Amino acid sequence: MIGIGQESMNKLIILDRDGVINEDSDAYIKTLDEWIPLPGSIDAIARLSRAGYTVVVATNQSGIARGYFDVATLDAMHERMGELVRAAGGEMGKVFYCPHGPDDGCDCRKPAPGLIDQIVTEYGDVTGAPLIGDSLRDLEAGVARGCQPVLVLTGKGAKTQDKGLPTALGHVDVYDSLADFTDHILKD
Ligand SMILES: O=P(O)(O)OC[C@@H](O)[C@H]1O[C@@H](OP(=O)(O)O)[C@@H](O)[C@@H](O)[C@@H]1O
Ligand SMILES: [Mg+2]
Ligand SMILES: [Zn+2]
Predict the structure, then answer these.
(1) In this structure, which residue's CA is closest to atom 14 in ligand 1?
(2) Do 143 and 112 contact (CB within 8 A), yes or no?
(3) What is the count of structural domains for the chain?
(4) pLDDT digits 0-9 by tens, 116-175
(5) Inter-residue contact 30 to 73 (CB < 8 Å)
(6) What is its EC number (predicted)?
(7) CATH number at residue 169
(8) Mutate to test the pocket of ligand 1, among 14, 17, 30, 60 (most ligand atoms within 8 A of CB)
(9) What is the full DSSP assignment across 4-51?
């Protein structure tokens, strides 16, 4: 049982995007049509928000720096995500993204915690808030700021699990999917 919301008074949940909310691809998610929600993810976000959680996103989007797509396309994906969550009866918090490439030396590309710092500035304390990701770098960014790391096995998650998680992360709860995580959290 995760003590979600007990530590962070903000009842905040931080989601990685690709491989957690929507399908991921080694060729990047470059167009609106390639942005395909994973089964149950939109409904899970809507259920969490109806239960009083603020659900925000922290995502690396190096495809911008690499020239694979532009900010307008990325914004269209996030507009679509918000529309779908609203249609499912919920609300989506803000999407925080790193548009930089691996060699840009920014502070916001996960595993750097800069996106989490932006979330703190906008939403307040993130201590104990679950950070749900499919890659080690997602979990590392969250742990660096006191979040509760949660691995889902969608996207790159199964590969991440197979590689093994560093003990420095502490305890990491593992769920098959965001929908599975949500079932557990809202049932307990
Ligand atoms: O999982 P989030 O953070 O939401 O987004 C990941 C994407 O930005 C892309 O990140 C890339 O990593 P590099 O940025 O090339 O290291 C690759 O892993 C792609 O497969 C993936 O689609
Ligand atoms: Mg991901
Ligand atoms: Zn960045």
Answers:
(1) 62
(2) no
(3) 1
(4) 999 999 999 999 999 999 999 999 999 999 999 999 999 999 999 999 999 999 999 999
(5) yes
(6) 3.1.3.-
(7) 3.40.50.1000
(8) 60
(9) TTTS-TT-EEEE-SBTTTB---TT---SGGG--BPTTHHHHHHHHHHT
**Minimum-distance ligand 1 atom for the alpha carbon of 27:** 20
In a domain, 7, yes or no: no
Selection from 100, 83, 98, 7 nearest residue 45 by Cα: 83
Residue 21 maps to a domain = yes
Q: Has this prediction a pTM greater than 0.90?
A: yes
Out of 24, 36, 41, 115, mutate this one to test ligand 1's pocket (max ligand atoms within 8 Å of CB): namely 24
Say which DSSP state 177 is in. Answer: S
Whether the ipTM is more than 0.90: the answer is: yes
List residues near ligand 1 (CB under 6 A).
16-19, 24-26, 28-29, 59-63, 102, 135
pLDDT in tens, 19-59: 999 999 999 999 999 999 999 999 999 999 999 999 999 99
Q: Which atom of ligand 1 is nearest to the CA of 66?
A: 15
